[in-house]
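Review form for a predicted model. The reviewer records the input and the model, then writes brief findings.
Reviewer: anonymous (R2)
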Amino acid sequence: MTATLPPALAQRIRSDIQSMHAYAVQDATGLLKLDAMENPHRLSPALQAELGARLGAVAINRYPGARVDELKAALARYVDLPAGHALMLGNGSDELISLLAMACDVPGAGIVAPLPGFVMYAMSAQLQGLAFHGVDLTPDFELDEAAMTTAIRTHKPAITYLAYPNNPTANLWDAGVMRRLIAEAAAIGGLVVIDEAYQPFSSASWLDEIKRDPAANAHVLLMRTLSKFGLAGVRLGYMVGPQALLQEVDKVRPPYNISVLNAECALFALEHAEVFAAQAADIRAQRERLLVELAQLPGAKAFPSQANMVLLRVPDAPRAFEGLKAAGVLVKNVSKMHPLLANCLRLTVGTADENTQMLSALRHLL
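Model under review:
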């Protein structure tokens, strides 16, 4: 049931916010949860006990301090931080996206991003009062270089987002097109944010490009999250960029935005990076299995994926979604998000058993 705000209070809340819909999280109670691109693997009992002991010893009576700095240093080593670059932490990538909009909110500022894409790019713009300019992908979900170039030259955005791979289409875009769009943004003095939320499952990273040609990427920020790494419940994202640029963005970050528990969990995960690397390898193998078997379903089309999800077009997405849910499998119906996603479902790659259950339900439906 939706509550109604009293008129006296309604005038105190922005009208555009009152007309918005909150970010929706599906109820997964009793269902196989394959809707949110989470890593399906849990820690072994031994590692759970080890992590529990460490978290129990954390000084939760104190504000976060040196341990957060140790996490930044550990992440810098993990990504082999390029010379002249710095690293900034956020409470998930979502907070970093919001902070970027806040930092770049100069008069007339706007944001450009391809569509369909991650909903938080547009939402952060609206909440901060920036103009958002979405540019449709091509029908095969590639960047429309001409349209993106026109948008950058026309709107001169403060920020251009390029997700690599993209959500929900799960594909990597052509590197040559990316380079040219980054150069276009540089020409108008804009930032480019490369969102690599799905990097553990991708065959390429723009960080290699930054290391290869730092001058061409001097206005580029690279954003990642530990959610897909395997810590979705921890809420920790990080952003890499030129030191002078990142230190300005960091000024809008709330103090103590990373809790001591977040930091300890992330440090623990980095110390056991090989465990999470093995999980990612299993997910990549299961993704390839899914792509092969989904291609055999009548009337369905699975699109190429470099993430831990597969975009699947079916004859009737709402019916398939409800049918899967009735069979105990929860996926994401993205068919109404954008016209290019008509009759599309987004399937998270699960464990072998979970994928078998999902495939069985899909075969029955189709």
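Findings: The chain has two domains: 7-45+274-365, 56-271.
Further findings: The two ends are 34 Å apart (CA to CA).
Recommendation: see findings above.
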